[in-house]
Amino acid sequence: MLVDAAGVVVQCSEDAAGAFGDQRGRPLDGVVDPASARRVGELMLGLRVGDPPASQLLVFLRRDGTEQAVAALIDKSVHTTWPEPVLRISALHRVSSREGLEELVRSEAVLRSFVQTATEAMWCIEFTEPVDLSVGDGEIVRQVFENDCHWLMCNGAMARLYDLPEGLEFNKQSVRSYFPRTPENEAFVRRIIGSDFSVDNALSIDTRHDGSMMYVENAVRCYIEGGFLLRMSGTARDVTDRRLKENRLEEVAQDVRSILSAIPDVILIIDRQRHLLAANPAFEKLLGWRAEHFLGRDVQRLIDLESPLPGGRRWYGVDPQRWTAAVGHRAGVKVLFDVQVAPIGEEAPDRFVLSMRPVRQGEDPASTWPPQTSPAN
Q1: Where are the beta strands (DSSP E) in the chain?
Q2: Quick one: fold of 118-259?
Q3: What's residue 78's pLDDT?
Q4: Are the C-beta atoms of 266 and 355 separated by less than 8 Å?
Q5: Which residues contact 29 (CB under 8 A, 6 or more apart)?
Q6: What is the pLDDT of residue 57?
């Protein structure tokens, strides 16, 4: 329920309307008893926007004339619909005594203390201008980044995560300064939407207080009422170092793939059990096989690695090996290849690189590339 500076109810939730009737447009002193109206009036004058909510025991007047005591939290906020700040009254629980309210206040204090002293970064964004969820995903994303909002609760660990200077209150900072609208963060919001507004390990790219970029892994939960998103809350973890390392590894992997694609020789990566782990495009070009049909399978069907090599050597080991072998082509013929195998790693290797270059029968394997391939019996 929202009350304006004149003491008039300007917004009433579905739950409140169901319990006490739709009170929009009515003065508050006709909705609650005189003592409750007086306390709310005092809070309108005394509370500032951004102050912690005040706990109060209010007595509401039902439509049948009976009274109902309700424990509530009251805070002041700015809403684009009204020119002046409004009071928001959030009912926590129906109680029958002052002792019930005091118990709720104690519980709230314990919870707030737990959050503030937690080592895990915790945050909550409240939308003063609620996000309408009845529209398409693109419009929801736009509202999340453009509707009026503020930090409702961020703990000390959150301030440390974003490198706020000592003494600077995170809850009074702009949400947009730390959670900007970017393609990556739009994708983050779309993931929240696609996960029915409850998601774990969702990646956002946030901004530290000094303006530097930070990869953040979030667990997000949302509070929705009447088809409107009112709050998003969650925990945050800095994964910048891990993410940058993954990006570097991906860049290296892409470079390796590009190099392997440019090599005209057949390159196979196999394990000690001869299972194919990877192959370059030359495998398909020179032998006609589709690499995905062999991935995870024994390459013995293509090349005999079970029989000892000349001199009784085995194909695996810590030393590179080289020999000439007939390799099966998809057309059903054998193609003679100069084969070289080298281990990956120096101690107890379990992966190996096979490099194979086709040769003509009777030709020195070290001859100039590329020779013409010919069937071998």
Answers
A1: 2-3, 9-11, 54-61, 67-77, 86-94, 121-132, 149-154, 198-207, 213-225, 228-238, 266-271, 276-279, 321-328, 334-343, 351-358, 375-376
A2: Beta-Lactamase (3.30.450)
A3: 79
A4: yes
A5: 7, 37
A6: 74
- Confidence at residue 372, expressed as pLDDT on a 0 to 100 scale: 43
Single-letter amino acid, residue 261: S
Which is it for the CA torsion 195, 199, 203, 207, positive or negative?
A: positive
* Residue 314 to residue 186: CA distance in whole angstroms: 55
Distance CA 29, CA 33 (A): 6
Enumerate residue ranges in the chain where pLDDT < 50.
Answer: 95-101, 104-105, 110, 365-377
- Residue-level length of the chain: 377
Sort strands 198-207 and 213-225 into parallel, antiparallel or unpaired: antiparallel
Q: Which residues is 222 bridged to in the sheet?
A: 232
Class of domain 1-113: alpha beta
Q: Using alpha carbons, select from 219, 221, 214, 215 the residue that is nearest to residue 235.
A: 219
CA dihedral 224, 229, 234, 236 (to 10 degrees): 160
Q: What class does CATH assign to 263-376?
A: alpha beta
Domain with CATH 3.30.450.20 in the chain: 1-113, 118-259, 263-376
